[in-house]
């Protein structure tokens, strides 16, 4: 058992792996990752729908995406492993005037930041998906540089590169508490004994709130189930399509091999760590899907290929990043609200800056610090799926 490390990272998902890699790249290699499960990359990262996009309502989120997606484009040469980035685009379909006005404001901001994004008429949007119903649509936005990726390949690439630099991984090692002295974290407690440290980074994903509570901190990150359903091979939609979102219902879909991957969040479902597929919710998903895409009525369901995972959600749907003002030596990197895969490259860079330089500086993360919940200065992310 390791009895000390300069930095302890809690969680071996894509965020923890990216931070470990970026720390090691900067020369800080006395790092240990503690993973509660017996296998790394076995939680939310492995159960993601894998979307990556620039189309956010928050400038900071757009900047995180702009940096991260560029890094994913060059992932194999810069890190190793496979990002499998497929830039097929994101297509948002809007049928409400107020929502359309918000999306137009978003587009103006995104373009100002150098993001390629188009506004489309319903007729122009209809070219992407056969037989799309457009009679009630007002417009659509399309980001050609958006798409999806391989979350497992990205996390594994970061993790193996970090390990090559000397970062250590300990599996089956849940955090059971913290040792705190003089207002500073001095050790992380595990069933195998304490691990002394100068800095601890909470990347525990859906369990980040529980981990923070062990240190006496109130971290507003809660787990919520998200279901992903898969059709059998569906040649009726044979060409690549964008990851397409019917904003009015929240239904989304994209191709996965020869099949269609689809889902829709259930806003009435309470917080839990349940990762069993909700078959009762499937009817609502299919109803919304067929309403907008009648062609789906002929699709079969591949039950064995459906799954559920967890979003780690904050009240404003933005992550919590950076040092905690109430506990020295403790840093948050959680609460991504479904955007952790796409923002992992930028998060790794910024948290490494927070550790080594004392403050993140490549992108200003002040509005993502936990202080915002005390001041009430919340700017909720509008584009949430």
TrEMBL record:
<dbReference type="Pfam" id="PF01266">
    <property type="entry name" value="DAO"/>
</dbReference>
<feature type="transmembrane region" description="Helical">
    <location>
        <begin position="7"/>
        <end position="24"/>
    </location>
</feature>
<keyword id="KW-1133">Transmembrane helix</keyword>
<feature type="domain" description="FAD dependent oxidoreductase">
    <location>
        <begin position="7"/>
        <end position="353"/>
    </location>
</feature>
<keyword id="KW-0812">Transmembrane</keyword>
<keyword id="KW-0560">Oxidoreductase</keyword>
<keyword id="KW-0472">Membrane</keyword>
<dbReference type="GO" id="GO:0016491">
    <property type="term" value="F:oxidoreductase activity"/>
</dbReference>
<dbReference type="InterPro" id="IPR036188">
    <property type="entry name" value="FAD/NAD-bd_sf"/>
</dbReference>
<dbReference type="InterPro" id="IPR006076">
    <property type="entry name" value="FAD-dep_OxRdtase"/>
</dbReference>
<dbReference type="GO" id="GO:0005737">
    <property type="term" value="C:cytoplasm"/>
</dbReference>
<protein>
    <submittedName>
        <fullName>FAD-dependent oxidoreductase</fullName>
    </submittedName>
</protein>
């Amino acid at each position: 058992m390791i009895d000390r490390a300069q930095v302890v990272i809690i969680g071996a998902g894509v965020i923890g792996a990216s931070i470990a890699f970026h720390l090691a790249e900067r020369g800080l290699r006395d790092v240990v990752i503690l993973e509660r499960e017996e296998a790394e990359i076995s939680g939310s990262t492995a159960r993601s729908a894998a979307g990556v996009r620039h189309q956010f309502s928050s400038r900071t989120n757009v900047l995180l995406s702009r940096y991260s997606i560029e890094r994913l484009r060059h992932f194999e040469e810069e890190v190793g492993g496979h990002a499998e980035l497929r830039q097929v685009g994101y297509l948002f379909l809007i049928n409400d005037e107020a929502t359309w006005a918000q999306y137009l404001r978003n587009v103006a901001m995104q373009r100002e930041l150098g993001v390629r994004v188009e506004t489309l008429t319903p007729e122009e949007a209809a070219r992407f998906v056969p037989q799309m119903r457009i009679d009630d649509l007002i417009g659509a936005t399309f980001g050609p540089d958006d798409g999806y990726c391989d979350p497992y390949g990205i996390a594994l690439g970061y993790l193996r590169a970090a390990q090559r630099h000397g970062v250590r991984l300990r599996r089956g090692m849940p955090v059971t508490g913290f040792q705190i002295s003089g207002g500073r974290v001095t050790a992380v407690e595990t069933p195998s004994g304490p691990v002394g440290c100068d800095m601890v980074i909470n990347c525990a994903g859906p369990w980040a709130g529980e981990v923070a509570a062990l240190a006496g901190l109130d971290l507003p990150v809660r787990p919520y189930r998200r279901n992903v359903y898969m059709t059998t091979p569906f040649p009726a939609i044979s060409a690549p399509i964008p990851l397409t979102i019917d904003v009015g219902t929240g239904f989304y879909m994209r191709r996965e091999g020869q099949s269609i991957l689809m889902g829709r969040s259930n806003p009435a479902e309470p917080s839990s760590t349940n990762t069993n597929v909700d078959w009762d919710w499937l009817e609502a998903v299919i109803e919304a899907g067929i309403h907008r895409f009648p062609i789906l009525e002929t699709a079969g369901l591949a039950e064995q290929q459906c799954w559920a995972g967890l979003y780690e959600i904050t009240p404003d749907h933005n992550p919590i990043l950076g040092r905690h003002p109430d506990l020295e030596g403790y840093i948050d990197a959680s609460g991504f609200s479904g955007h952790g895969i796409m923002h992992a490259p930028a998060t790794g860079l910024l948290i490494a800056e927070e550790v080594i330089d004392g403050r993140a500086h490549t992108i200003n993360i002040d509005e993502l610090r936990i202080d915002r919940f005390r001041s009430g200065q919340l700017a909720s992310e509008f584009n949430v799926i």
